[in-house]
Amino acid sequence: MEAWMKALACASYDYMKLMVAELQRQLDEAQADAAEAAAQVTITPLDGEPKVPPRGQRYNPFNKMNEADTKVQGSRHHKENLRPELPRKQTPFRDIHAAYGRAILADRSAWRARLSKQRDATLIQF
What we know:
single chain; 60% helix; coiled coil; mainly alpha; elongated
């Protein structure tokens, strides 16, 4: 199988067209044989055979649940219903960017100060 996949991966377009045509011919031949065999076989139903009862839509208790059943205590749906809806404060992107930028710059300057302090410190102390 692996060698066949490698051969297909390296095959040219013309070879692939040839293979597809051959496979299509084989498929058509197999379908024609199957249709011919099905036409020759006739099934005569026996009167003594049991009949299959007609199937209607079976009852599924999960299809339509009552509203009270869908809210289970202890679930997140129940907890969400108990919490009052808090209004969300809309903050523009520019303000958020500026606030985070200031925090990052402060951390960066503190990091640089620590780095320069380490560089200036002598490695060997007497």
